[in-house]
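Entry type: protein chain
Record version: 2
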Amino acid sequence: MTHNPTPWQILDALFPTLKLAAFYARQIQPHIASRPAKDGYDNMFGAALSDADLSIQTMVEVALLGSFPDIRFYGEEYEQTYNTKYFRAIDLGGKDDYLVTLDPIDGTRFYLDGHNNYQIILGILNWDEFEAVIALTPSQNSFYYALRGKGVYVGSLDGGLNDTEPLKLGAPKPKILLGNGMEFLRSPLSQQYDIIDIATSYSHETQIPNVNGMLNGEVSAAVIRGGKFIDGAALGFLAQEAGHIVTTHSGAALPPLHECSNYERPGLVMAATEEMHQAIVGAIATARK
């Protein structure tokens, strides 16, 4: 039991539990039954809630409380789990007082429809920036992780954290993913790029890329309406560590985490090239005028 763990120690301690959670999610996906939708969400992706969300969060909470009982923790299902009251805090702390975050199933709608690009995302946040993020893709038997300033590493769930290789991406594709609420960019950007618009392109039968497509080369840019600490901002951190340009919609640098509210950074633009980034930022500015 470590009272002042480093980000690596946290990842290393939780990785066996995260692997078990990934195998669990993969095993029950064909049999999963959707639980009642969550209130307060305006799209089908946020409203979906499965048994896996709650079960995986409980697994991680138990591992955290057993290994680091004094740590801060905020999970997506914090209002519905039994363990929230046992953590010291659920909010962002001061410098080096890390907050661990969890999205137990990122892409719940993808998961419930049987697609294979859902993820389990865990972040370790300092007061200003992410210190580490790990994203496991159970049905693809893979995971990505990054420590602040050290790039992204990719590995198989058959191995360990040390059995990884630096992420290498090929030549960027002229393909942009538009998150929910960003469909107004489809028309101006489709003249130069292939566009995947989640709001209109999503299908229960045919899989489309998720934001994690930035890491496997399926898309070379993504635009999301808001960067929640548990998912969008965490994936933005991985994209940035992979060498991509990541900014706000205006093209400005991302604000420090402690300047954000409601566990969320503003909308994000992620792009593999300066050309794509400028095209997206310009299209947003024009649309806002």
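Comment: The longest strand covers residues 99-106.
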